[in-house]
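Researcher: Let's try something more involved. This one mixes different molecule types, so please make sure each is placed in the same coordinate frame as the others.
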Amino acid sequence: MAIEASHVTKRFGEFVALDDVSVRVDDGALTALLGPSGSGKSTLLRIIAGLETPDAGSVRIGEEEVTATPARSRGVGFVFQHYAPFKHMTVHDNVAFGLTVRKRPRAEVDARVLELLQLVRLDGLAKRYPSQLSGGQQQRMALARALAPQPKVLLLDEPFGALDAQVRAELREWLRRLHEEIHVTTIFVTHDQEEAMEVAEQIVVMNAGRIEQAGAPRELYESPRNEFVMSFVGPVNRLGDSFVRPHDIQIMPHPDETTTEALIRRVVHLGFEVRVELTLHDGRDIWAQVTRENAQELELEEGQILAVRLPDPRVFAA
Amino acid sequence: MALGYLALLLGAPVAMIFYRTFEHGLAAVWEALSTPNALHALWLSVELVAIVVPLNTAFGIAVAILLERHRFRGRAVLSLIVDLPFAISPVVVGLSLVLVYGQLGWFGNWLDAHGLQVIFSVPGMVMACAFVSLPFVARETIPVLREVGTDAEQAAATLGANGWQTFWRVTLPAIRWGVVYGVVLTTARVLGEFGAVSIVSGRLEGETQTLPLYVQDRFENFDTTGAYTASVELALLALATLVAMNLLTRRTRSRTPV
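Model: All components are placed in one shared frame. Result:
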């Protein structure tokens, strides 16, 4: 179901967490709310879920205006950063919770729980307690629990934030495939632009309680509307008032009229990618991203002076 | 050092009491235990526990949730009031109850007219015990509530649970250690309370005499075996509470690895 927040404002004392924010998420979409901490992304998610009340504005889920509806009647599934497991219940009872509070018949509950545990690949661990699971398993349990009552929308608050890098990468991939399978409208909050780009179909970039830009990952990367989006989505070099992407800087074998001189300060090998830190002839520091092959061909070394071609820099109106 | 301190303060006196109790053999102990006054005192103490502990447990949990989960005007004042019984001497508690509910007190006439006797009878003793043991459950529960946080409760809400379901199925199991500890302390206090009960009860032999009052009575009447036996009885009751609660928590623990 589509989700729409209109002119939502939320203050915590003096701090303005959300400042007249409007956003629409299409039915069945997988959307990321991306922004630094304090940008208001989690607050917006919690307002959609009904865990926070807005000072002004409204929220619609599908055709229904839910601004005054309590969380338990909104039909949302919510996943917390720290999993929020019911520690005294088994995995089975955790997942069954949303069904047992609705007093569904036992057989139906058991069948649904089994189906969900298979979906999140935790079948066989039904009798365990949350403390006997790894972080990644607990988060998958939390996801199964949120999905059990068949929510209209699924909301995830920094769902992979507390996991280590490898598990995080696995779960991202897995969340995307899960979404392809069940197609429930999903919003997840993240401060990690790579995570947003990799998982989401649509990204909403937030900063200081406002929405900076919303669009497909590629659109944000290629035509950022402002400085903030440019520097938050993807790597960037700042040259005075202008910006260049590191992979747009070309290192040339020979100088010509389009190139400028630069000194290599450091060469960092990151596998396929090589990061070259440079000082331009006018003293400004930038870094360039080249492929491993390219770096080998050019025989890049620290202290070397070479020719670089800078792309047309992007300038945003202040 | 610490152990020596404990031995001097606790170990030696308790050991002495046990020794003196059984000095004249088991028959004497049994005889002392089964006098009508001793039995009545035991029964009255247990009755007070049975009434006061559930009342204060419910109150303590409710206040703890109110103080820890809600922000409202007068919250600091309420928190202070909950602690008040710890700051007031039990004797003063007893006297103030007599002042309000006694025959010459504020409500004395009204109560008398309706045939209700509070002071020198069980209702007054319940009030005295409830007052002096009021803070235990709340004070033990509040830090645990803070520790467990609100995530699980919010998760329950998004899963469709109403307030009661969330309380019984999520909050209470999460804070049970704090509650249990509060219950043990409350029980021990109600069993052992002397000052406030002593004033409110009138210490009527075989009527409003609780175990601690009975111990005092026996002691003053040079019936040392009676006094020591009742003391041991009191100690064993408290110990039994502790053990029962411990067993109860262990049983839940084996079901719920933490």
